[in-house]
């Protein structure tokens, strides 16, 4: 069930038996020579829709722009400041809470979002602690799809030390599975990208000329993406059900 294709009476009915919702969250940023700019949003959205096909759950609109300032040296990247992103998250959660949602599960596809999302959680809880609003029954969780147990195992098996940390063959494979008509082919030089610390946009572009970090996304395939998808959907269902029991 998708919030953006539902009517308000349908959401009202849903809330009669569940107060949980999954929010896919990612980024719009460069992902190397063959990676889609929407990779970090496409991946969690695809998994969330897969979860919703297996169990009755509501999926919120994907938050597709995140903290990606360090990628602004590459055309197409769109970024939010951490403070802007926090404000968006706080307002979104409080909107959902007003309607009766008490379990908000963020399914994330971008490592750069993690610190900001967790900070937003603390801002929300602080508002409750300072008696600005009563939120003591609110439960929030962040799950990074790329860090679930099954995904880690499969990524290691398929790609080993060529997985890297950005523009990885795992995430590119998942986007290829989601959009098989958009599969890209590009040469990688060097085969495995360099690694290093991430700073600002100009420094990033100087260190990582084609956008990759430690990865070889030329290994990405639709078949690998399907395998990662099915494994991650199973992991997220288990994790979500446990979260809903809290």
Task: Please provide a written account of the structure.
The chain is of the alpha/beta class. It has a single domain (3-241), classed as Rossmann fold, CATH 3.40.50.10310. 44% of the residues lie in helices and 8% in strands. The chain contains eight helices and four strands. A four-stranded parallel sheet has the order 2-1-3-4, with helices on both faces. Helix 4 (114-129) links the parallel strand 3 (103-108) and strand 4. The protein is globular and about 55 Å long.
* Main sheet attributes: strand count, strand direction, barrel closure: 4 strands, parallel
The name CATH uses for the topology is: Rossmann fold
Mean pLDDT: 97
* SSE string: HEHEHEHEHHHH
Q: Helical amount among residues, as a percent range?
A: 40-55%
Terminus-to-terminus distance: 22 Å
What is the CATH homology-level superfamily?
Creatininase
Number of domains: 1
**Envelope shape:** globular
How are the strands ordered across the major sheet? 2-1-3-4
> Which CATH C-level class is it?
Alpha Beta
Low-pLDDT parts are none
CATH architecture title: 3-Layer(aba) Sandwich
Q: Count the DSSP helices.
A: 8
Q: What's the number of extended β-strand segments?
A: 4
Structural class: alpha/beta
Q: How much is the radius of gyration in Å? A: 18 Å
Strand content: 5-15%
């Amino acid at each position: 069930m998708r919030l953006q294709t539902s009517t308000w009476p349908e959401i009202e009915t849903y809330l009669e038996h569940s107060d949980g919702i999954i929010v896919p969250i990612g980024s719009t940023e460069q992902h190397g020579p063959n990676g889609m700019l929407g990779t970090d949003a496409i991946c969690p959205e695809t998994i969330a829709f897969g979860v919703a096909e297996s169990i009755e759950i509501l999926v919120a609109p994907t938050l597709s722009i995140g903290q990606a300032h360090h990628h602004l040296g590459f055309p197409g990247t769109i970024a939010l400041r951490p403070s802007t992103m926090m404000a968006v998250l706080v307002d979104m959660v409080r909107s959902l809470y007003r309607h009766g949602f008490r379990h908000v599960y963020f399914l994330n596809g971008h490592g750069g979002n993690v610190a900001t999302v967790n900070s937003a959680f603390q801002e929300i809880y602080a508002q409750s602690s300072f008696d600005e609003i009563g939120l003591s029954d609110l439960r929030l969780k962040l799950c990074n799809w790329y860090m679930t147990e099954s995904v880690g195992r499969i990524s290691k098996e398929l790609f080993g030390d060529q997985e890297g940390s950005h523009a990885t063959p795992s995430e590119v494979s998942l986007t290829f599975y989601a959009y098989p008509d958009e599969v890209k082919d590009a040469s990688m030089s060097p085969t495995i990208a360099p690694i290093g610390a991430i700073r600002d946009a100009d420094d990033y572009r100087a260190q990582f000329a084609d956008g990759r970090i430690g990865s070889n996304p030329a290994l990405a395939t639709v078949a690998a993406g399907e395998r990662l998808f099915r494994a991650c959907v199973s992991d997220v269902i288990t994790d979500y059900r446990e979260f809903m029991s809290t």
